[in-house]
Amino acid sequence: AGTQRARAGAQTSLHVPYGDGEGEKLDIYFPTDPSGTFPVLVYIHGGYWQCLSKDESGFAAPPLVSRGVAVVAVGYDTAPKGHMDAMVLQVRRSLAFLVERYSGIRGIYLCGHSAGAHLAAMVLSTDWTEYGVAPDIKGAVLVSGVYDLEPILHTYVNDALNMSREVAQRNSPMLCITPAAPAAAACKVLVAVAQHDSPEFRRQSQEYGQALRAAGWSVSLLDLAGVDHFDIIEKLSEESYVLTQVREELPSSL
């Protein structure tokens, strides 16, 4: 319902292909006045890498587009069709596509929930020289994410993913943290976790945030009271934590 309202109330480009794969499509919600340059919030959906889609990802768009921020909902091939290596590559390629296609982008903010926070965290470790672009990632909001995949190898979640230990390790953000380059040091990372998230989610968020900070990244940890793993993302969009982060960075334009 939130996506339907967002699509009705914004100028959009839906199902924009960023590659040849069936799931490699973006929904773009443009600012109310898209003339000139504008910041972009890139939202990566959750669903344990095997359900949901970009079509449920438009709920965060209305308060942002009305204030001059574009919102991009990223589609990727979920399991069992997609496998972990491919999903990480798809999300990275979606950003490279955006930078090449839209010259008006002035600053990218990543936001992901659960599995989407994992994929957003993997974007932070990207060697962009392989893609021939240098996205200006100014911030990331990582919500109730998974940053170490090994603990899920022996759970039902891996039934569809079918990850080996090697695949889990090379796609675990905890094991891929790069020392913050000058540009990365300017990127503000908000690691958010719900009060009623499981102890494992809470542990991973804490440890990943601390590891990023130790590597020189600018990190804030947010422990959100009174919410669980599923309603935290709604709370964050309602309370406009995401909007606040973007607005702090761009006070002159919002």
In the predicted model, the low-confidence regions spanning at least 5 consecutive residues are: 250-254
Sum up the overall morphology in one term.
globular
Structural class: alpha/beta
Major beta sheet, strand line-up: 1-2-4-3-5-6-7-8
Helix percentage? 25-40%
**Biggest sheet overview:** 8 strands, mixed
Overall mean pLDDT stands at 90
Would you kindly provide a written description of the structure presented here, covering whatever features stand out?
The chain contains ten helices and eight strands. Helix 3 crosses helix 4. The longest helix is centred in the middle third of the chain and has 18 residues, at 84-101. It has an eight-stranded mixed sheet with strand order 1-2-4-3-5-6-7-8, with helices on both faces. The two termini are 27 Å apart. With 254 residues, the protein is of the alpha/beta class. It has helices at residues 2-8, 61-65, 84-101, 115-124, 157-161, 165-170, 182-185, 199-214, 232-239, 241-249, and strands spanning 11-17, 25-30, 38-44, 70-74, 105-113, 137-143, 188-194, 218-224.
Name a few traits of the molecule.
alpha/beta; 254 residues; 8 strands; single chain; disordered C terminus; 10 helices
Summarize the SSE layout with pairings.
Blueprint: H1 2-8, E1 11-17, E2 25-30, E3 38-44, H2 61-65, E4 70-74, H3 84-101, E5 105-113, H4 115-124, E6 137-143, H5 157-161, H6 165-170, H7 182-185, E7 188-194, H8 199-214, E8 218-224, H9 232-239, H10 241-249
Parallel strand pairs: 3-4, 3-5, 5-6, 6-7, 7-8
Antiparallel strand pairs: 1-2, 2-4
Helix pairs in contact: 3-4
